[in-house]
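Chapter review. Work through the record for DNA repair protein RadA before attempting the end-of-chapter questions.
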Amino acid sequence: MQFAKETNIPVFLGERYSLYRLLRSVKNRFGSTDELGLLEMTEFGLQAVSNPSEMFLSENYFDSDILAGLALAIVVDGSRTFVIEIQALCVHGSSVARHVNGIQESRADMIISVLMKQAGLKLHENAIFLNVVSGFKLTETAGDLAVAAAICSSFLEVPIPHDVAFVGEIGLGGELRMVPRVEKRLIAAAKLGFKRCIVPKAAETLLSSLDSGITALGCRTLKDVINLVFSSK
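Structure tokens for DNA repair protein RadA:
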């Protein structure tokens, strides 16, 4: 911040080896500070990203086992809504206990503990690796459900259908909790071609009248999510 003030040069957030940069407004005298600019380094210099969601989605191999361990979260940062990919890998008997990239470690620990205690997943002897694609830092709790779904997918070795996204906070009892701006999140997912979104049960009625081409599937607990997404596979 001191460098930016002294040189009048903007400072960007982003991974050192990534083409993408995040420009966040920390202080704005005439408007909102809750804004996020997304830019990509090209041969012509930094250019605005027209579709923010696409920069956070890796290449999908539809109908392939390689999709196991991948789940898509709909997140909001500033006025931007986009879909990001959460990756999980569960390895039985590994000497590495846990490695987390792009997710708050305390939040990841909580989600893993709830999956073991409330959903009955036997993760005790598994090393768990978590990663957010493209260097994005997941800070809001609306991504909890996608993190849990990615772990379940890898542990059960069952891919998640490519047209399904996730929105929801997870409580210590394994319950799914509401998050802000659910309607806006689903509209963004629909524009990218998603057909279904797993949401907290409380949001299902709220979204029933939303004419966006995407179906909101309400679940009360993590067990409900596991039964809905994985039991029919």
